[in-house]
Amino acid sequence: MTSDLNMADRIELRRFVGRELLLWLWLESELFEATLSTKEHGSFGLWLEGRLVLDEGKESTTIKGTSPGLHREAKESLLRGKTPERAGIHLSFGDHECTLTLRGETLAFGGLLPPKKEKEPEALTLDAPPPRPKKKRKEENADAILADDAFYDRIYFARDVEALTTALYRDFLALRLSPAWDKTVVPAMKAWVAGKDVDAGRYRTARSRVIPSARTGP
Amino acid sequence: MKPLEPEDEEPERSGWSKIGEPFVVDLTHEDVFFNEYVNLGFRTDRWKLSPSLVKKALRDAEAAYLEKKGREKLSRTEKSELKLMVTKKLRRAADPATRVVDVSWSLNEGVVRFFSHATKPGTQMMDLFKKTFGLTLVPESPYTLAERIGLDKAQKTAWSDMEMTSLADRAARRPELDYAAEEE
């Protein structure tokens, strides 16, 4: 990939690709009514939520709300040449519901919290003896184990979300680096931004010729 | 990690600690390795003394020194020595501020996860990582992820040639210029 350039240049010159990923996710989440899919993950929920930041040079627009992408100002910003710098995203996949902020130029997550674990209710028995006070050492060990659990929960959850966004990025690249981008995606984006109707079925058909279809359910 | 002491000259120092336990700095194999992960806390100690407190203490120390010596002015060297002495004294009465960011290196994936977006700790961690492990980290970007995913030959060519997609509407973007052009 662009072999005459050094690594730093190769990185800098393609930062816009991450912004286009956000733009594409935004488009598809609206076209497919917040239900996207990848080959590995099947169908899942994805929509813009919270904060959407678009900019061009020093000019920046921040839109906050439950559906910032639907805001009139959001599409107007695109028409003015701004692109998404970061977007709040709601994900609903497997048993997980979470929100995160995805930054276009670094593909870094922010504000990703693993879903809270529900505490198992303690069994109540009337005849049971009162619990014995635990020794301090045991309490310290228990705290350390809980802290470890929380850390690994966070790591594994971050890895799951990364796997999902990586699969989305791979699909996006398949489309972005194919002739279908200019032929199908860009015209659809232009119509969508202008507030015109986009034929989601036709778009899906063209898309499925490039991107491997999602696995079917078990 | 060598914790910051009042006598140390540097105002800030970073190092590795046990994950979740920033004050455990003598690390064992069990503290660091978990299956295919190397987990560490990136700890930074920093002296945070209130400038007004330092100023007042310095003023008091200067006045006491001048009175003791029976003089009216301090030399530049005396001033800087007094400042150092006052700073160390204040540090002895306080603890440095400690900040920790979790680092998890997945050996199988070849990926290091750093749980902070701030630029300064990110850069410092990468420097320390290079010193400790002899490896240079490259922050994630659209380019690096595309490399890891792997592109075929046609995709690589398209990647080299592609230009940014613009949805900008000329009329929406530069209304004043268009208007002027129409008038001409």
Task: Sum up the structure in keywords.
heterodimer, A: 218 residues, alpha+beta, B: 184 residues, 8 helices, 5 strands, elongated
The two chains with the largest interface, and their residue counts, are: A-B, 49 and 39 residues
Overall tally of structural domains of chain B: 2
- Strand elements of chain B, count: 5
The biggest sheet of chain B amounts to:
5 strands, antiparallel
* Rounded Rg of chain B: 27 Å
Q: Shape of chain A, please? A: globular
Low-confidence stretches of chain B: 176-184
Shape of chain B: elongated
Quaternary structure of the protein:
heterodimer
- List the uncertain runs of chain A: 120-133
Query: Helix segment count of chain A?
Result: 6
Rg of chain A, please?
22 Å
Distance between the termini of chain A: 38 Å
Largest sheet of chain A: 6 strands, antiparallel
Structural class by SSE content of chain B: alpha+beta
Could you describe the 3D structure shown?
The complex is a heterodimer of chains A (218) and B (184). By secondary structure, chain A is an alpha+beta fold. Chain A has a domain at 9-113 and 140-183. Chain A is built from six helices and six strands. Chain A has helices at 7-12, 16-31, 72-79, 136-176, 180-193, 200-208, and strands spanning 35-38, 42-56, 59-65, 83-93, 96-103, 109-110. In chain A, a hairpin with a 3-residue loop joins strand 1 (35-38) and strand 2 (42-56). The model of chain A is unreliable at 120-133 (pLDDT under 50). By secondary structure, chain B is α+β, with helices and mostly antiparallel strands. Chain B has two domains: 12-135, no CATH class; 146-183, no CATH class. Chain B has eight helices and five strands; from the N terminus they run βαββααββααααα. Chain B has helices at 29-32, 51-69, 76-92, 119-133, 142-149, 153-161, 170-173, 175-183; strands at residues 12-17, 33-34, 37-46, 97-106, 111-114. In chain B, a hairpin with a 4-residue loop joins strand 4 and strand 5. The model of chain B is unreliable at 176-184 (pLDDT under 50). Classes of the chains: A alpha+beta (218), B alpha+beta (184). The A-B interface holds A 1-2, 7, 10-11, 14-18, 20-21, 23, 76, 78-81, 83, 103-108, 110, 144, 147-148, 151-152, 154-155, 158-159, 166, 169-170, 173-174, 176-178, 181, 186, 189-190, 193-194 and B 19-21, 34, 37, 39, 102, 104, 106, 113, 115, 117, 138-147, 149, 151, 154-156, 158-160, 162, 164-169, 172-173.
